Each structure stands twice: as C-alpha cells, then as structure tokens.
C-alpha cells in the first residue's frame, strides 16, 4: 500500500522510500525515515498534496511522490 492510498486519520509505518535522492534528503531532514509512525491528515484534492503528521510536525508531500512511498497500515487494537 502506498501513502496516497491511506484514508484521512489512518496511521501507518513507513516501509520504503522509493523517491529521488533530493526528496529523500528533504524527508529525512523533516524526520520522515523508515519505521516511523505517521498519520494522514486532511488532503484537499485540488492542491494535489498529501498532508501527514510525524512526531508532531505536519508535512505536505506531492501526490506523485506519495505514490512512491510504501507504508504498512498500523492499528492500535
């Protein structure tokens, strides 16, 4: 499952980052790394952005890059 497929409010664990080195570097600077727990926030369709929360930060990622980030859905139950 990729990051774009998550529904609003769902949590997931990052499994792989298959993006360019520039984007990967930016994500790592902002705390997005493998094994991190993220939550998908409201993402307006007209903006073509995927908004996530990680460690208290809100980060927006382009949908085309979010499709290249593999996640595993996480459930606290």
Q: Would you give an account of this structure?
A:
It is built from 2 helices and 5 strands. With 77 residues, the protein is α+β, with helices and mostly antiparallel strands. It has a single domain (3-74), classed as Roll (SH3 type barrels), CATH 2.30.30. A 5-stranded antiparallel beta sheet has the order 4-3-2-1-5. The two termini are 20 Å apart. The mean pLDDT is 90.
Any idea what the CATH architecture is? Roll
Structural class: alpha+beta
Radius of gyration: 11 Å
The total number of structural domains is 1
Q: What is this structure's SSE topology?
A:
Blueprint: E1 11-17, H1 21-29, E2 37-40, E3 49-54, E4 57-62, H2 63-66, E5 69-74
Q: Any descriptors?
A:
77 residues, alpha+beta, SH3 type barrels, five-stranded antiparallel sheet, 5 strands, globular
């Amino acid at each position: 499952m990729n990051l774009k497929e998550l529904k609003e409010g769902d949590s997931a664990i990052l499994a792989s980052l298959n993006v360019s080195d520039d984007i990967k570097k930016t994500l790592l600077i902002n705390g997005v790394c493998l094994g991190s727990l993220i939550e998908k926030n409201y993402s307006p369709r007209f903006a073509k952005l995927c908004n996530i929360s990680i460690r208290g930060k809100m980060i927006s990622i382009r949908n085309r890059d979010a499709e290249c980030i593999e996640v595993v859905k996480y459930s606290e139950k």
